[in-house]
Specification:
By secondary structure, the protein is an alpha/beta fold. 45% of the residues lie in helices and 12% in strands.
């Protein structure tokens, strides 16, 4: 009986697949009306958590009953796939990518070493070359690897930069970020064996962009103090505000000072597919390495990241390794071996989740969706700027708009009261089950952020949100 369950026949597989597919389709069709926040009560949440902590049973279960249980767990969560989820940097998840992932998991090919599945490795490599060369503008020969997310991509970039510029002696290795650089960079540096005090925070200008002059002065001072500057990180869209650092000036600085230039384009990178995004993100093409998160602005499911590099050989130099048990493997035929380019030795065929949507929908569909998000951000900025009680301090570089309650005057007390009102406003906005926004600190002020990324978010939902913000602001 158990053996039959492990290898169901065609009729059983079809029935099982149909049950799952029907649930997924029902879920997607219901997304516009699903609440964005976790509305499950505390008692029900506790019961769900306790039930899912239980060990698996000895005897087989019923798929329909198990799916019913899973539906409860899915409802006990933020609705990150819906059109009203505008908190943090959302990820909607294309249905076509989910189908590709189902196919990939079903055929279960080994993707770490090219000899094991050369055609599928070529498929994955085509996606990576497209990301490196067509999206980021890196030269011919550039490529990279797909990862589980931007953090792992950034870690491999830091390791490659460390190996290239510091070798085996890490003492004094110093890198340069800003206070708005994603915290994954500092985490990657720590994991790479670098000292926390050698992660230098470069001041920003009034527009929250890294100040290249200040960075140059810090690099000079660190060198004179006996340290070894080796890496500078520019943001192509910060998480806090979507702000883009002056990438061309940072590329000049990195070239002049012989530093590795890494661009964190996890959020913003795929906007380069649009004309506006390409202008805004000029300088990315001069990077040594670029972090991308296809689960953000390529609309793929969570768990899909990418690192692309100017010279893939430098990834091999930092990550390659082998063992005697691999003595029987065949040659790669010029294809990459992803196990030697990053920390993961077991690597499923990840390229399908990007390859199928790109080939099924075409790049133009992605471009149009990204242009729509830029349009919606401009529209949001304009509409919020017309509300006298709100400060909308900066135009969006990409698709994130920030705003806060305007103080009555320039005093510290007025700013404190405005911060309290901003927190109150955010709570009132998020009481509406149709949407979820998040907040951050900008210039030590409480600031609400709207990040428009999900492919399911369109003008109708944004206009509803703008009406709600105007109404709730008037009630303060």
């Amino acid at each position: 009986m158990n053996e039959m369950f492990l290898e169901p026949d065609r009729a059983a597989m079809s029935e099982m697949g149909g049950l799952v597919l029907d649930r997924v389709i029902d879920f997607i069709e219901g997304l516009p009306d699903r609440p964005t926040d976790n509305t499950t009560g505390a008692a029900v949440t506790a019961d769900l958590v306790e039930s899912f902590l239980a060990a698996p049973p000895e005897q087989p279960g019923d798929l329909k009953e198990l799916l019913d249980r899973l539906d409860g767990a899915v409802g006990c969560a933020y609705e990150t796939a819906g059109p009203g989820y505008l908190a943090y940097v959302p990820g909607g998840g294309l249905y076509s990518s989910a189908l590709a992932e189902f196919y990939a998991r079903g055929i279960n090919r080994y993707g770490s070493l090219a000899f094991a599945a050369p055609a599928l490795t070529a498929l994955e490599e085509s996606v990576l070359r497209w990301m490196a060369q067509e999206v980021c503008g890196l030269p011919q020969g550039s490529a990279g690897l797909l990862t589980t997310g931007g953090s792992m991509a950034t870690f491999s970039a830091v390791v490659a930069a460390r190996q290239e510029h510091l070798g085996e002696e890490l003492d004094g290795g110093t890198l340069y970020v800003t206070q708005y650089t994603h915290h994954s960079v500092a985490k990657a540096a720590r994991l790479a064996g670098l000292k926390a005090r050698h992660v230098r925070t470069v001041p920003c200008d009034q527009d929250l962009r890294m100040d290249p002059g200040a960075a140059a002065a810090m690099i000079d001072a660190d060198r004179r103090a006996g340290l070894r500057p080796f890496l500078i990180v520019g943001s192509a869209g910060t998480t806090d505000t979507g702000t883009v650092d002056p990438l061309p000036a940072l590329a000049d600085l990195a070239e002049r000072e012989d530093l590795w230039f890494h661009v964190d384009a996890a959020y913003g990178g795929f906007f380069r597919l649009t004309e506006r995004g390409r202008r805004q993100l000029e300088g990315t093409e001069r990077a040594d390495s670029v972090t991308l998160d296809p689960h953000k602005t390529l609309f793929l499911p969570f768990g899909t990241g990418a690192l692309v590099v100017r010279d893939p050989a430098k990834l091999y130099a930092a990550h390659e390794g082998t063992g005697d048990y691999l003595q029987d493997i065949g040659t790669s035929g010029g294809l990459p071996n992803y196990a030697h380019m990053g920390p993961e030795l077991t690597h499923e065929v990840r390229g399908l989740r990007a390859w199928l949507p790109l080939h099924l929908h075409g790049v133009s569909a992605i471009r149009q969706a990204l242009d729509e998000k830029l349009d919606l951000a401009e529209h949001t900025h304009t509409a919020l700027s017309r509300i006298p009680a709100l400060e909308v301090p900066r135009r969006p570089d990409l698709s994130t708009v920030t705003f806060r309650v305007r103080p009555h005057d320039h005093s510290t007390h007025a700013a404190t009261e405005a911060d309290k009102a901003t927190r109150k406003l955010l709570k009132r906005i998020n009481n509406d089950p149709r949407l979820l926004l998040s907040s951050t600190l900008i210039d030590n002020r409480q600031t609400i952020r709207i990040c428009i990324v999900t492919h399911r978010t369109h003008a109708n939902r944004i206009n509803d949100i703008l009406d709600l913000i105007a109404h709730q602001t008037a009630q303060l």
